[in-house]
């Protein structure tokens, strides 16, 4: 007779020195039931529930392979380096297959072929880098590390490498497009990603990320060994990650690079023709206004067709490689770049209604680029993931407007009158939000406008921070707003330390924020979701405005328009849902433990005055609410005094 999941969970929690949490037990039993009944599960588990143990235990108990997919590398690292090793040790002696492995995209591993033999097409780049001194030393350090990893049986994962930049890492890694494949590579037997796949094929549990899951399940490119069920943690991020994985970009420099690489391998004029097509694309893009392209301008359409046809001809002109000749890494990489240009140009030239196309403006360092993304992804998820696998979606924010229906629809679980078998469960939170937190909505302030932050808003920010004596996190809708607020606080409260995103790397800013209670940290989106600062460090979270998507956001505006066209309410289905999710994530920065206390200040009066305000508030933790600024400041002063 099998041991109940709740009993195994209790043993694990006891072995790890924890205490029983009702929500954790409820979630673990629900996950086990979902696996057994092959019923999809949406489970909202607040911060502090211990949701990773609540799905890992039933995943290890399940009789078939389970995949766990996360949105962030931080959570993936936590699962593999901390949670799973401790859990496996706690369950030792039980008759369970506790084998597990981690799978990442190929570019997250060092490439032994690139390190040991280099790539002919990149020799010029490497020579230039060697002349650059510091970068060359770092690249050499990474190469030595990768060789040691190979000799010692290590994983070759980027997370374990010496500290480096993205640019330095690109010198020791390849994308899946540039890979020679294990069969053709002289180092295929030692290859780090191939080793990872072999280990995964022998493991009961596989930890991966949303993007790799999307490529495997939705794009149909086999990346993960066959599995029965999947747990998607940080599930509120899934739609964005799947969309990102299915988004293509094309610049005229991409075309030019593919043509230059091809010149070495193609004898005819095809490479030159591709270069000419790239010039035509550059000219057409220069004549096109940035933004969403509902219909393709004629010149741009012609240029894309020219690029597509030239890339196709160039591919056909490549010499055939026989297995006896061995792999030519330069040829493989060059042909791969042309193939990528062809596929994206073809997709853009067709410009189906199911895709959104736009031109993104360039910067000093990045050229203008054409982008294409799916209008929606729920149909692909429904058809290629939800109909074949049992899926558990877990997050602290899945009930938007107080209901699971909005998220269930975006994931493909429900559409019109057709629903897949699913269940929604809110296991609550160990926190008493009504006693631990105050939601203060500054109803008296002017509505946000386009002309920057109003003086009254800056006054409010300064007064709240003064009352809190620092200990404040400011979450802003734009870098411009964050910088304006930081400047005002530095001038008027010089005794406090005021940090703004961009002053240093985020980990450094977070460390300084934690170490000094009289510190204020202002930033944008990455702080809304990626910062965990429990304790007295953060007793005030300020949000400058409801985070609706920008009106000129090509994808969001297209989705909103499509929802209106289908007879729905595009604003509520797209813009308000997007805002509700981010608001819930932002307010969630305040209460991280059972002893945390503080105030969330929303400086946008529309949360109290607009009709959609109720929907947004219903998506937030159930804190005690007020619109009285005096009450908010008094509460902050009491907390600051107690902290001293």
How would you describe what is shown here?
The longest helix is centred in the middle third of the chain and has 22 residues, at 329-350. The protein is an alpha/beta fold. Helix 14 runs antiparallel to helix 15 and helix 19 runs parallel beside helix 27. The radius of gyration is 26 Å and the shape is globular. Helices cover 48% and strands 13% of the residues. It folds into 4 domains: 5-99 and 204-242 and 377-426, Rossmann fold (3-Layer(aba) Sandwich), CATH 3.40.50.300; 108-194, no CATH class; 259-367, no CATH class; 433-643, Rossmann fold, CATH 3.40.50.
Q: Write the CATH homologous superfamily of the largest domain.
A: P-loop containing nucleotide triphosphate hydrolases
Q: How many DSSP H or I helices?
A: 27
What's the CATH topology label of the largest domain?
Rossmann fold
Strand order of the main beta sheet, please?
3-4-2-5-10-1-13
CATH architecture of the largest domain: 3-Layer(aba) Sandwich
Helix/sheet category = alpha/beta
**Average pLDDT, all residues:** 90
CATH class (first level) name of the largest domain:
Alpha Beta
**Count of extended strands:** 20
How large a portion of the residues is in β-strands, by DSSP E? Answer: 5-15%
Helix content: 40-55%
Estimate the global geometry from the Cα principal axes: globular
How many domain modules?
4
Kindly, what is the distance between the CA atoms of the first and last residues, rounded to a whole number of angstroms? Answer: 56 Å
Rg: 26 Å
Instruction: Report low-confidence residues grouped into runs of 5 or more.
Output: 120-131
Largest sheet: 7 strands, parallel
| Oligomeric form | single chain
